[in-house]
What does this fold into?
Amino acid sequence: DFHPPNHASFASTHGLEPFRLHTIPHPYDPRASLPQMLWPDHCVQGTRGAEIHDDVQAALDMREKAGTPVSYVLKGTDARVDSYSAFACADYLQFTNMASILHRAHIHTVVLCGLATDYCVRATAVDAAKFGFRTYVLQDCIRGVDPSTTAEAEQVMSWYQVSLCTW
It folds into this structure.
């Protein structure tokens, strides 16, 4: 995530409490709206929360110095619409360059970890499978927001032949 400060997913943008469903305007169709879970402000551009962890960044920098190309995919950059998946935003209104980067590099397998199992991990895993990648989710390297939606996310991922495994 690399959100602008006034992102549509932030409860603060709407003057509401986080962790509730809210309706936001559709970014392209003024007659339509989108459901949006409201979150605490997170991963705001220009803040420490949007930075890659120092240890991970150091490893990426070492790979680049060794001649291995590293690509960064920023998501959630449009203040008007949320983006759980690393491949596309809500309702596939916009796409990132993730699939293109992976296909050009002849990568066939995606291994996922991160937050949150029931939102970003689920959406990214499902989209990776839809784009034809063999997809693994490291269960001991993820965490969900809510146990019930996390269980549902794991079920949905299994429908797309996403493999849930441990590190």
The first helix runs from residue 11 to 14. Residues 138 and 166 are 5 Å apart (CA to CA). The first strand starts at residue 21 and ends at 25.
